[in-house]
């Protein structure tokens, strides 16, 4: 009986593989029209589950795929993203502890004094690029310095979506190029490209993309109306009135940077980053702790209870200044639950697409029509973006995209570095642009900006796959073993 079922099982047709994607995109568009920016509160999750159900139905009914195969793929997908779920909880804890301890307010106050409003966006890109280059992590960069920078930008009167676009553009520049970045290491290792060969080759496409991005943000900075400096300084004074601002508080991000330099695992670094902030919560902010506990002289038990509540469920303060209340209010670990719910639903959809061989069907169809180098690189970029949409996790997308095209690039005689660069230029940087991708959901939650709102301003992220195709079209430093010249014609 088993052998008979195996014979009747087939790969999905191209049109069949596209149906779940069409259902997903159509459902998300419908949900956005209904709920707007609040799509993560349940609507998006249901849309993804609907697309998952359609995938399973087509796979089992028409392609005769066994449920056990789909279930195994879903289980493996959830297993692969488990560390990302824990990371989200820790990022939620950092957001609350770094705020209440005065670490983020200190960076905001100093940033308001040092940074010029007109060049803020330009500076934000550079700052995040440097931090992510040193840390190798866009997530850590955005969860720490990104949170402070977006508050500074708001204080200047710059639209929050534009600020988020600048922060994300810079953060993913470093994530893409840093030798400490897990995506950089993964893309080079899965293809078999030496790490620094991979990084040097990426500079050919990444450098012009970054230059264009910086020019755009510089133009935007000088084009938009900036809030009067008196209001900005007023907010700075209000922050200083609520928090004890001290350069000593910057020891928390410095110690975090030391842990990163020691190359400790990301989960350990994020955990310690939240622990570091507990000490100044207790001793550096007695006035704020009094407001949070509701007593002028809280005892040890009340302080401990408040710290735990800040970590788990965040903090909320009611003053006469709305901007200050919004700044101090945090959601803690609990604020990540909707994101985690969405990630789990996305993992189910990605697992069903893999188990039902939908991605393979789409890619195999595309490969048949690749007649030039530009077409090959364009298809690889498209598949990377498609994987981010369907699988909803950049790590899985990198691995799958690598495995789908590795043998084809070898057969056509291209150097491995062309494939590894193309994957980084498309898969790594576009993951944050998909609302239901782990990266898109995380950065949207951390920055408090809907993915579709900041997407138009993430110039570096969506210019990268365009640039990799344009550079390929010039034939610059594209070497092949067999057919490179013929395919380039």
Describe the protein in words.
The N terminus and C terminus are likely disordered. Helix 6 packs across helix 8 and helix 11 packs across helix 25. Helices cover 76% and strands 0% of the residues. The protein contains 26 helices and no strands. It has 489 residues and is mostly helical.
Quick structural gist:
With 489 residues, the protein is mostly helical. The protein has helices at 2-8, 14-35, 43-62, 67-80, 82-100, 103-114, 120-135, 138-155, 160-177, 182-191, 195-223, 229-242, 251-261, 266-283, 286-293, 300-313, 322-328, 337-355, 358-367, 373-390, 394-412, 416-430, 438-447, 451-454, 459-474, 484-488. Helix 5 (82-100) crosses helix 16.
Shape: globular
Structural class: mainly alpha
Give the fraction of residues assigned to helices: over 70%
Low-confidence stretches: 1-6, 481-489
| Quaternary organisation | single chain
Biggest sheet features: none
> Could you tell me the radius of gyration in angstroms?
24 Å
Kindly state the number of beta strands: 0
Q: How confident overall, as mean pLDDT?
A: 81
Distance between the termini: 52 Å
Helical element count? Answer: 26
Strand and helix order: HHHHHHHHHHHHHHHHHHHHHHHHHH
**Percentage of β-strand residues:** under 5%
């Amino acid at each position: 009986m088993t052998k008979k079922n195996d014979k009747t099982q087939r790969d999905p047709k191209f049109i069949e593989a596209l149906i779940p994607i069409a259902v997903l995109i159509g459902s998300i568009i419908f949900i956005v029209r209904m709920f707007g920016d609040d799509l993560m509160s349940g609507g998006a999750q249901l849309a993804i589950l609907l697309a998952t159900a359609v995938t399973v139905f087509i796979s089992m009914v028409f392609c005769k795929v066994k449920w056990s195969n789909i279930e195994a793929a879903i289980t493996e997908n959830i297993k692969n993203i488990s560390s990302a779920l824990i990371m989200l909880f820790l990022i939620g804890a950092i957001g609350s502890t770094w705020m209440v301890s005065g670490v983020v307010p200190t960076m905001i106050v100093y940033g308001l004094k040092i940074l010029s409003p007109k060049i803020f966006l330009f500076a934000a890109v550079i700052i995040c690029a440097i931090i992510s280059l040193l840390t190798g992590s866009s997530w850590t960069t955005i969860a720490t310095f990104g949170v402070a920078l977006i508050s500074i930008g708001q204080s200047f009167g710059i639209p929050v979506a534009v600020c988020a676009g600048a922060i994300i553009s810079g953060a993913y520049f470093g994530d893409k190029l840093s030798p400490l970045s897990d995506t950089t290491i993964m893309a080079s290792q899965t293809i078999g490209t030496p790490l620094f060969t991979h990084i040097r080759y990426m500079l050919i496409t990444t450098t012009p993309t970054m230059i264009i991005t910086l020019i755009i943000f510089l133009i935007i900075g000088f084009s938009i109306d900036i809030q009067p400096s008196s209001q900005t300084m007023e907010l700075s004074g209000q922050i200083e009135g609520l928090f004890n601002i001290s350069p000593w508080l910057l020891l928390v991000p410095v110690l975090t940077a030391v842990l990163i330099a020691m190359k400790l695992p990301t989960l350990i670094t994020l955990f310690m980053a939240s622990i570091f902030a507990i000490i100044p919560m207790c001793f550096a902010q007695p006035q704020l702790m009094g407001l949070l506990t509701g007593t002028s002289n809280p005892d040890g038990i009340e302080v401990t209870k408040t710290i735990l509540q800040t970590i788990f469920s965040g903090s909320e303060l009611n003053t006469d200044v709305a901007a200050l209340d919004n700044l101090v209010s945090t959601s803690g670990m609990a604020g990540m639950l909707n994101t985690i719910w969405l990630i789990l639903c996305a993992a189910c959809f990605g697992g069903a697409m893999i188990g039902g061989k939908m991605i393979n069907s789409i890619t195999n169809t595309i490969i048949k029509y690749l007649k030039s180098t530009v077409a090959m690189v364009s298809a690889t970029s498209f598949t990377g973006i498609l994987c981010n949409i369907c699988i909803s996790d950049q790590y899985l997308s990198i691995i799958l995209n690598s495995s789908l095209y590795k043998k084809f690039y070898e057969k056509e005689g291209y150097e491995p570095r062309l494939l590894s660069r193309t994957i980084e230029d498309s898969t790594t940087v576009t993951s944050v642009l998909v609302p239901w991708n782990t990266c898109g959901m995380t950065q949207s939650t951390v920055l408090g900006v809907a993915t579709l709102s900041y997407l138009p301003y993430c110039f570096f992220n969506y210019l990268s796959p365009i640039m990799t195709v344009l550079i390929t079209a010039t034939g610059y430093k594209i070497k092949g073993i067999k057919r490179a010249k013929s395919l380039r014609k």
